[in-house]
Amino acid sequence: MMYTSTQNNNETVSSAQAIAQGISREGGLFVPDSFPQYDGITFETLLKLDYRERAKKILSDYLTDFTAEEIADCVDKAYTAEKFGSDNPAPIVSVDYKGNELNILELWHGPTCAFKDMALQILPHLLTKSLKKTADGKIAVILVATSGDTGKAALEGFKDVDNTEIIVFYPSDGVSPMQKHQMNTTGGNNVGVCAIKGNFDDAQTGVKKIFTTEEVISALESNGLMFSSANSINWGRLLPQIVYYISAYCDMVNAGKIKLGDKINIVVPTGNFGNILAAYFAMCMGMPVNKFICASNSNNVLTDFINTGSYNKNREFITTVSPSMDILVSSNLERLLYVLSGRNDEETAGYMTALKTTGEYTVSDEIKKTVLELFSGGFCSEDETLKTISSLYDSASYLSDTHTAVAVNVYDKYVAQTGDKTPVVIASTASPYKFSRAVLSAVEGQPVTDDDEFAVVDRMNAKTGVAVPAPLEATRTMEDRFSDVIEPDNMPDYVLGCLGLK
Ligand SMILES: *Cc1c(COP(=O)(O)O)cnc(C)c1O
After folding, report:
1. Which tens digits make up the pLDDT trace of 428-481?
2. Could you say which of 383, 406, 435 is where a domain stops?
3. Residue 271 CB less than 6 A away from ligand 1
4. The pTM is what?
5. Is 116 noted as a catalytic residue in this protein?
6. Residue 429 CA: which ligand 1 atom is closest?
7. Do 415 and 457 share a domain, yes or no?
8. What are the angstrom distances between the C-alpha of 1 and each of 75, 92, 243, 279?
9. For the segment 296-353, what is each residue's pLDDT rounded down to a tens digit?
10. Pocket test for ligand 1, best of 245, 324, 331 (most atoms within 8 A of CB)
């Protein structure tokens, strides 16, 4: 299997190269040239396997330039019971809520308590093997722009991994106190963490710019370094996410909630469009899906896109209680447009150029129609997010984080509007303890005024009895190691400084 750039069909690379490079030279994203097709018999086989064995089967169908031993090594190192609390890193918890059964796919049992661990625990292993195959001897410099969760997950995945350096940029006022604390306390000798004065889009734009700044690239090259990416533009991030949707489908069959072949609905709290795109790619492989429900917070650029076919980022950026979804440029949408346009690289590049120059684009009528058939887009206000947390807790004894609450709220509205009772899987993307302040204020029905983040954690634990995840507990007594705050324009210099090249 080869991978093609969304913006140049002549740019064709192996999976190892796609992962090592992160992004195509002209700025496009790599997409597999076809999707492996899983029929009923393949699913029958998958039903009998555990998570790790399912992952090995799916990864091996995409990473055809890796040996079975290499893939097994990556998977077995990533998804251990030690790191994810059990042998199933992505368990489903079913709750009755407002007359519907919600099958909540908890993706946050990893070392940083957000779903990003599902990909970022395995990416370093995939990347170091990819580097060996394509750029032996080079050191990969991982640049990350984060809205909070990716940063910590990437730091945990890459810290002290040989032949890698990792530098994380986050918006100084755009992440939760716990997220900031988690990042700034990361150990390891190859890590850098820096806040920028700006929002997530500024951080992401800054990182993308560094990737294509000749002066920085050549400084790296002459020192045996090369850039790579741990953001969800990297194929090595998306692929492990396909696994948990297929695995969840199998678990739904095994639990007797659906029969093999039945369709499900999938609800995803969405920011950069990576997680929901992975679900769509699972459908492209043969997993039966009725509807993808794309849930946004007040930054509802995707809701508008799905409903109108016009993407317009020229709007106010709103800082919300679900900060990991505070995004106006959803990078992975580019991959969807490429696939839905029939792999039309010129058309896709045209949309992306328009986005860069005018901040907006409108897709063809064909794409618009297909998007509406496949996806339902909705959004949830701040007030609705907190009300959903409180009502989910009161009526179903389920404590959800703010992002998952957005998904549940948008799903509620979808069912009310359509009456569609297809069995549903809802992606739950973070532990409620990552966003304790907002979650506790929802549960208590009043603002939380404590200064100390762990005082809030303790109160929530006392009130709900829900255990504090061990990895968060472990950061309680750690001192911050990082405190730099810079202007986005200074990001290239900062990177060179970190690497000792300036
Ligand atoms: C990253 C993140 C999201 C958004 O996921 P995308 O793949 O960017 O759409 C949602 N919730 C949480 C908790 C996250 O960390």
Report:
1. 999 999 999 999 999 999 999 988 899 999 999 999 999 999 999 999 999 999
2. 435
3. yes
4. 0.94
5. yes
6. 13
7. no
8. 20, 32, 18, 20
9. 999 999 999 999 999 999 999 999 999 999 999 999 999 999 999 999 999 999 999 9
10. 324
